[in-house]
Amino acid sequence: MEQRLTPDQIRQLLANERQQFNRLQRQIEQIEQRQRQQRRQRARERQRERQREREIQDQQINALANNIRAEYEMKRLIEKAEYEKRIAELEKNQKKPTRRKPRNKSDEKPLDEFIRVYRFEPMQNVLDFIETQLSNGYAVEITNARVQYFYNKTGDDREEINQYLATFYNISQFQAWFKHLVENYDMNLSVFSGRLKMTPNEITLKHERSKQGMGTNVMCEIAEYKDEYCYIPSDGNCFYKCVQFIYGDKAPRKDEYGAWLYDSRTQRGLMTNSRIGRFNEHFNLSIGLYNTKNRGIEPKSQRGIHHDWLLINYFHTPDYHIGHYCLISNKQRGIALERIKDNYKVVYKNPTLENVKELKMFNTPTNPNKSNVYIFDFETYLNYNQQACPYAVGLLNYNAFSNKCNETPEQIKKLTKILISDRGCDFQTDGDKVDRAEGSQPKVDCVRKMFKYLGTVRSKKIVLIAHNSSRFDSYIPLFCNIKPIKILKTPRGILSITFVNDYASKEVSAFINKDKKKNHKDSKQTITMLCSYQHASMSLKKFCSSMTIREDLRKTSMVHDITEHDYLERMDEWYEYLQFDLISLCACIHKYNEIAYEIGGMTMFDTLTCSSLTLKCWFKDFVRVEDKMKQYLKTEEKTNYIKKVEEIISPLKIEDYFDLSKLEKAKYQTLLRKEFSVHSHTNPYIRRFMRDAVKGGRVFALINKYESDCFQTIVDVVKAHLKTPTSDPCEVISSYLKSDMEEKKKIAIKLKKQLGTVSDCLMNFDGVSLYPSAMSDKDSEYPRAETARVFDISEEKDFLAQFNSQTFRPKTAVLKIMYENPNTVFLQHLPSKDKEKFYNPETKANETKTLNRFRNGKVIDTLCSVDIQEIVRMGGKILKIYSGIVYEKNYDFSPFQNYITNLFEMRKVFKKENNEAGSELVKTLLNSLYGKTVQRDITFTTHLWNLQTLKTEYDDTIKSYEKICDDLYYVEKNKDTQEYVDEEEESPITSLCPAQLGIFILAHSRRIMNNFITSIEGSKTPEIYYGDTDSLYIHKKHWDTLNKNGHVGNNLSQGKNDYGEGGIIFGYFIAPKIKYCLLLKDDFIMEEKKTFKGCANDKINFASFKTLYDGQSIKVNNNAPWKRSFEGGITIPQSGSTISKTYSSTINTFKREKPDKNGVMKPFFKNYFDDKPQHEQSIEYYNSLLFDVDYNCFEFDIDELALEKN
């Protein structure tokens, strides 16, 4: 009978078996460990052996090289070329390290740190280590890892993953991954072995771009050349021309090549070296690229194939990554390369028939914005880092206010919604989620509360508007770590920023997606922040005043000393203040929109800036012909616009036009649309050419001091009345300006009694609405872009004769010319852009800077026909015409005339009705239109990328980048110039502004100012003390002359004394934008008018200008500026923080000659350009300057001229 074991015996047997198993397991591990140690020992021995071999080989090579050098030095039997060849062969045979060296030290990749985990470590330890490294600013990459995941704590089920890969750039990304692991696996039982790579989390290494071959950039062109050894195609589609040269009729058609060129996700429209292999595969061709560095053939598939011709990418353009594809003979490569080097000529482009005719019809959207609009405003305190932290935000629905704008303030205040941050909240995280996870009371900031509140509004798009949001409020959500989906940023600030509202309620999400199509993604609520300051560039207090808002609805005042610890206790101080901020801004915008809609049917919500608003209003007014015809039937006012309409539809009358059928109207609509249209040049080179003809306002200082005959008498009267202890005019006037109004009135009575009338003074003769005058003047001509043609050199003689006799107008053209200002000209029509050398004490070397100044001598420039003729009018002479664009036809009347005239008349009506709001808005619209027509083209795109994408895409096209939050960057990327453009896919319209109109607006504004200057002989004699874009500081004695010539009045194209009956009795005119004027008004009360670019008016005084005039430097302590960043928000410096600047007394000596004994500053006379090709300053030299980045973008500004370098 089988003996049964007792439970104790069974346990004992199991224990013995377990001990034996563990003993065997330990023996196995010891054996494996010894084997690993032996393998490591053998590996180290092999490594040491290889190292010894390399050292021996290096010693042998160095000894041999030294012997060769000694032989060369001592016997001189080997020629230099042979010697270098032998050394090169020896160095070539030497074993090189496997790691590839970087091309230059500036692009070196930072050293990476590797950690090898050999044993199976608990996964939790590895995760803790990774989190620590991420918090220290490192990116962690897991490579070649082996991971065993255990599903439960018993360890029965597990999952093993080999060759595991993962990369983490920030903690938030790691936590999202870690959260998934915790939900499924036990981290204490799971084990890990592999390699961890730590890299500094910085973007320091630019990727080398694939070499692009497209001919040249937009500035240059290349002459075609071919012989038996090489072929150099002309610029543009150079790769395709090379393929045609090799294969002839067998080459693919151009449209097939273009379709393939655009069939790429990352290199659309670009031909690069890396795409040649794919090109061969797609078209079944055999194109080989010869690499001039290693003398090999690329791609690899072409290395065993015989080629008669080889492609090379020749680099000789301003952009080092943009080359030019050429062909060389495979039999004579060396000769072919020399031929290409000798015959490759890059010259700068000129307008041609092809690029001038690249036009599109200009169009800008004029559809109203129907989003739900709220007015918002943040109240902030400063934390220990001086950063603005929001403790409250206010919201006010615009439509709700519009319905109750006439109610009492108490009733309107009920419409506001004030949301307050919880004390102790973390602005960088969502306190609601974090605190609930920890089981504590949630603490949420006001920004997220605002998003949650707006998430209950049944609207897909919500627009928030704040005053100065572009410089303040739009940065607050970014500071609170809320990620945007779109940012529009300019030097003005953040014009627009859009967020996806992740806090929207389920009911709102269902409402938004109720009409969603099947298989489409769910739409989300978006919130866009805009800035009202871009429409009214003034403080909110002044905005209320200009819009004549009710006194009981205007902004109130408050001492902004709220802190993190007392904002809840001091709610009674700021709560009502915030409410009235919302109400006053909403009232201003409501009034603004009423007037803007009356003018052009647009509102503030439809555009980002005031200039965009007035451009859209003008365009809508000009192209909507039928609306104009209907308006005529109501008013029967026959303008030039209506006369042109009648001419086109003749013999049909306007009254009968609307009785026609749609088919009958279509014929007339086509003619009207053709006449009342605006076209823009779209060729990139032509736009650059036109851009060079844009000349801004003129500012000049010609006589550095003025003192009236009565000034000393005034000083004596003031001194006697105020009993000042000194007779220094500077001290006396300063004491007067500090006295109260009662004292000033008493002094005024004495001055009036003693002086009677004051005629010996200066006036500020100001052009009435200068740019609107230029746009509506009957003598202003504007070209039609669709009639453009290229200037023919055979026309030069006739054109020169017409320009120099001032008979070229009203014809229009934009030409590159050489002209000369003789030494008899005192004030030139335009400044010249020159390059001068200046000594920099910091570097102790001469530096070349660009300088704009009015000078005499020869000048080469690109100008429109109006400016060219005005040069002759001011005393100059046109010497030569090089190239340009001529317009065959102009608009029969100014395209702006009707719009500007209506606005000007509307402003007069507003003034009669004492409607200050309407008058101010019309004035702003009048002065903003021209700026949009000369707006620079945007040459870059903006992106919001995570760190991984930025590192992948980081190359020379990245213009700039700025961090927003943990894993989001705002990136500006320069646009690539595409080699091939599919004409069928191109839109027939463009949003590129018509630059040709803007050029002529600016030119006609200078022509109108020249009417005033030439009337007083200001171009030949020193009659003008100082001049700005639309004003001249001249003596009152010229008033009668100007009046006699019809230049005085309040109408367009006329001028007036900006100081009324008063005048300037004393003035310092140190340099452009640096002047001081003491004004005696008609009531004999004195007032100072001062301008100092770069300094606040409260930081300078009479004494500052006197010090500069006396030849001494001044030191100015300006307030420290606010700092703005996406990641850090707004940083406000402590009260009293200043930045000190020292300004030199020799400011204007760079612009004009030193003053003579009468204070007159004469112009320089220099001949920078000569009409000889070999001369350094020839037309070729000028062309190179046009495309010099510093020459175009950096003007040696008065700020830098004034700064004295220590």
TrEMBL record:
Keyword Nucleotidyltransferase: yes
Highest rank taxon of the organism: Eukaryota
Chain segments annotated as coiled-coil in the UniProt record: 14-48
EC number of the protein: 2.7.7.7
UniProt domain DNA-directed DNA polymerase family B mitochondria/virus: residue ranges: 755-1016
One GO MF term attached to the UniProt entry: nucleotide binding
GO biological process terms held by the UniProt record: DNA replication
Catalytic reactions on record: DNA(n) + a 2'-deoxyribonucleoside 5'-triphosphate = DNA(n+1) + diphosphate
Region of interest (Disordered), ranges: 89-108
Key words of the record: Coiled coil, DNA replication, DNA-binding, DNA-directed DNA polymerase, Nucleotidyltransferase, Transferase
One family name in Pfam for this protein: DNA_pol_B_2
Family statement drawn from the similarity comment of this UniProt entry: Belongs to the DNA polymerase type-B family.
Protein name: DNA-directed DNA polymerase
Organism: Macrostomum lignano
